Amino acid sequence: MMAARQQPPTLELEHTLPGVVCGVDEVGKGSWAGPLVVCVAVLDSGVAVDDLVARDSKSLSEKKREAIFDVVAAQCAGWALGAASNTECDALGMNDAQKVATKRAFESLAQRGVRPNSAIVDGRWDFVSPLAEHVLMRVKAESVSASVAAASVLAKVSRDRLMRELAAQHSHWSFETNKGYPCPKHRAGLLEHGVSALHRTSWAFMQNLGLARQP
Predict the structure, then answer these.
(1) Are residues 161 and 177 located together in one domain of the fold?
(2) What pLDDT sits at residue 3?
(3) Least-confidence region, from 12-26, 46-60, 104-118
């Protein structure tokens, strides 16, 4: 029997929350190299739900994410990114680095005149409070919330573009294809060339691969 087609994300969750509602999503948490990036996105209330194009970024190919990026951005009343570098991830630990990146995203959005009252956040861990007064946690929120879906696409494409740019100066680790995530080519590059300036040197993979932990 053919599987039922997944329904596109809607605004049902957004309508349960007060004030300006944003979607929050992160990308890069499981990466061996590069920054952790958080996106905060507020959809334009003038766009009809049937016209919204954002989908869960994990369900889309890289080509499809690139194709809809500009439309997703245009359907937002405001969106912003915040990042924590690989060195900050090492120094702070992932939880605090994620909070720092999120705070930077909200601050950047506020500079553009958009200040959300409520947030829908993917996952079970609230890394957003107290940046929004009302925070709704939802596992796989990007599959049901159009705002989180928009944030997921904007975050993923933006970070992927950055990692492709950085690959030109760090050619041994195949960042143009793996975006810093684990894969055989990335592992082979580490074993042959060691770490780059973009790697998270406190991560367990360093010891697992027999690489010297950096001070």
Answers:
(1) no
(2) 42
(3) 46-60
pTM of the model: 0.92
Query: What pLDDT, in 10s, does the model give residues 129-181?
Result: 999 999 999 999 999 999 999 999 999 999 999 999 999 999 999 999 999 99
Q: Is residue 107 part of a domain?
A: yes
Long-range contacts, stretch 107-113, CB < 8 angstroms, 24+ apart: 107/82, 108/80, 108/81, 108/82, 109/22, 109/40, 109/42, 109/78, 109/79, 109/80, 111/80, 112/78, 112/80, 113/78
Q: Residue 27's domain spans which residues? A: 14-167
Amino acid at 194: G
